[in-house]
Amino acid sequence: MKLTDTRWVLLEIDGAPAPRGNKGRYPELVLTAEGKVSGFAGCNRFMGAYHLTQSRLQTGPLATTRMACPQGMELEPRFLQTLQSVDRFRIEGDTLNLYDAEGHLILRFGKSSTE
Length: 115
Hints:
This protein has 1 helix and 9 strands, in the order E-E-E-E-E-E-H-E-E-E. It is mainly beta. Strands 1, 2, 3, 4, 5, 6, 7, 8 and 9 form a 9-stranded antiparallel sheet that branches. A hairpin with a 2-residue loop joins strand 7 and strand 8.
């Protein structure tokens, strides 16, 4: 499984099952081979840059659209802050695990079935 050009859908955040955002959608992200990251944060779309070195992955700064949504508004800042604290990654099968600098698993994604 490739890190880049794969749509990753959030499964867990800080060890808990991922909550659904607006319209029942889970947050997701795509990292391109050109160093860009984008996706859905729970209410709004986000975009930005990332830096990759071996197993290290850092994102940011990130920008978002600014819509208000009936669902996902509380999830979005938590997801984006957690995403920006990522330090390392590991791919295991169809799962992308993201870790903070202390080695704690903070985000777990699965490969989207709608690619």
